[in-house]
Amino acid sequence: MARGAQRRIARSTQLSASYVVLILVGCVVSLPVVWLLITSLKTEVEYMAYPIRIFPAIPQWDNYVKVFTFGRFSYLGVARNTLFLALSSSILTLITSSMAGFAFSRLRAPGRDKLFLVVIATLIVPTIVTIIPQFMVFARLGLTNTYWPWVLWGLMGSPFHIFLFRQFFASFPRELEDAAEVDGCGPFRTFWRIFMPNAKPAIATSFIFAFGGVWGDYFTPLIFLTDAQTTLAVKLSRAYADPMGNRLITITLAATVVYVIPLVTLFFLGQKHILKGVVRTGLKG
Fold first, then answer.
1. Cis peptide before 51 (omega within 30 of 0)
2. How does residue 283 score in pLDDT terms, banded at 50, 70 and 90?
3. Taking the domain 66-283, which CATH number applies?
């Protein structure tokens, strides 16, 4: 009895300590977000004031209105560019990567596993190493200052997403394919009618990661696109400015809050599917 009570006390103490550590880590991680939200409601004078004032005297909700109405910065126009680029690239990446993942996991072919190792090996190559050669190729083809590079990258698939789908499809029982073959389904119909409808966790995980990668990308649009075609990540880095060229930091921070809302919303909508996808792909293979 005494030992059981001691064990329960030890477990509750350990659990309480774990919660305290998690709460402290959560507070530390949340500080930049809290600072961003609070500062986006300040005036420029309050932002520049010293000593620092943590909270604004009067919250400047008008900063969020100026995000969309500021004459020298077309937020909605740049947002349309970013949304089109992120959606088209992520959908194409999802389709091609899922087909490649299905082939690597379910179809038998000579050299399949060796080719898959080559695909996985490309994950260790930093993007910075290949971006300049790719720019030179696209420049020779006349495809810079267009969205064609993102379309072509999407059509080629992504090693990470191929790996994700390959691991997920490998967890499917063989009986599904056998039943599909009995019904006269070929590999494509089996993939499209059997595997994809049951791959919602992997689809959600792949789409959110691909969408977030393009939506938050700064370096690639900076190199490939002109100012008229660029994305929000590049545009916001240059900040809002008044006619004299002085940066309007608080409005820029308000625009940053608006910028991250789609990603946060997308994550919360697909959170359950992401967890299922990560768990299932982590347990298999």
1. yes
2. very low
3. 1.10.3720.10
